[in-house]
Structures are given as structure tokens and as C-alpha cells.
Amino acid sequence: MAYKTLALDLDGTLTNSEKKVSKKTKSAIMNIQEMGIRVILASGRSDYGMNHIAKELELAKYKNYMISFNGSRIRDLYNDKLLYEQNIDPSLYPEIFKLWREYGVNILTYNREINKMYTGDEKDIYAIIDAQINNYIPLVELKDFEKELDFPVAKFLFMQDPIKLEWIEKDMQKRMGDKLDIYRSESCFLEVMPKGVNKGNALAKLSELASLDPAEMIACGDSFNDISMIKFAGLGVAMEEAVDELKEAADYITKSNDDDGVVDVIEKFIINDI
After folding, report:
1. Topology at the third CATH level for domain 5-86+197-271
2. Which residues in the chain show pLDDT less than 70?
3. Which of 115, 195, 242, 261 is deepest in the core (most CB within 10 A)?
């Protein structure tokens, strides 16, 4: 199979433990873009948290795409155009906020228009970590979350100790799973998304819009929110340190992100097949 599209998660996949793209990985990606291979970034991060990586890899120059907020937004980088957007229905906010308080977790969301992150507790370590992951986006605490939230929400993030969050994930899926998609991106991050929004469905939407063949697509990831993506692609790849559930769904397991696992995939399935 001649693969023509490479979809990449960021954290734990494209970037190393320092949240950077290694020189070796960057070189390989630049090389395949020159060859005409499409490269798509697909992350739970905000646009703000992804833009610097897209710029570093010159994705706009090569007419490529970016999927942010786990699939809530799809952008054509070359034309700087928003192709798709889906937000959480505001009528669901009261029930979401009720569970947030009941579970005793911290909550977080993003204002895309002014590139700020809003949280119930700005001193919470998990909120600080997510702000750092998103390229040090400004973190602002809302005193009255319900009343001060006056912008469209692509996703909410519940943050808590991983053991407790695993139970919360299952309980919230039972209580709101018919209205929202609820899954973890990291062991301490629970993504609360519009119904039907995930990376796999975003790739399906983009495939229609950009005339991409899913059978000719490789998708690489490491966490729970990547499962839909690697199932959708013709070749689904799990990183060496991926969660077990992702490895079970994958067609191939590559090296770790710190060992340039993406380069291994490029060399084995793209370069060697040309």
C-alpha cells in the first residue's frame, strides 16, 4: 500500500518528553512533505497550543491541515480557513457543572477568540500542566464559572488524580454519554466533548472535504483519545509507551516518542514503499 497521508497526535507521539519535535523527526517530516505526502496534526490541544508546531513544520506551505480540541475544529492551514467547528450545546452546561461540583474535580475550558484558558482553580497543578502543554497559554480563574462563561465551548476538561478520574469517566459516561462524548486524553485529563466529536470522526470529515483516501492514511497516537483515529486510518500505529487499549487496536507498534518513533513509521511505511 502506498500511503499518502500521515496523521499525528502531538503529546507522546510527535513531540518528545520535552514537548519538542526532535531534529530527526522534523527532518523526516519535511522530507515527506517535499514528496507530496499530506501531514495532519490531530490533538486535544487548543489551536494556540498547536500553532507553533505547525509553523515549525511549515505545514501551511505544503497545504496541510490541523485538527484541534480532539476534533472540534479542523483548519486548512494554507488558506488559513476554518473548515469545521462543533461546540458543546450550552443547554448541557448546568448538568455538566452539577457533575463537576459533585465529583470535586477542577474544570477547565478555552476561549479561542482571545487565546485564554479558564479554570475553577488556577493554582491546581493539573490546570498549570495543561496551560504549559498549550504553549503557556494564559490561565485565568473564574470566580463564578456559570455566569462568566459567555463564549462557545469546544470542550471542557475535568482534572483529577488518575485513579479517581477512571471511576468518574465511567460514571459520567453512564449519566451523560447519550449527550456528550467523554474520554481521557491523559490519565489525569477527562475530555468532555460534543457528541460524536473525536479524532477519528474529524479525519473522516476532513477526508470528505479534502478528498483523502482513508485506506492511504497512517495515524499515530499514544493515548485513549487516539483510538478512534487509529481505527479510522488504513494503518493505525501505537507508540511504544501507548496505553494498552490503543496498542490492542493498532496495526503496528513503533518506537517511543523519545526514540523518534514517527521516523520509524515514515521509513518503514512511506519511504520504503515508494
Report:
1. Rossmann fold (3.40.50)
2. 273-274
3. 242
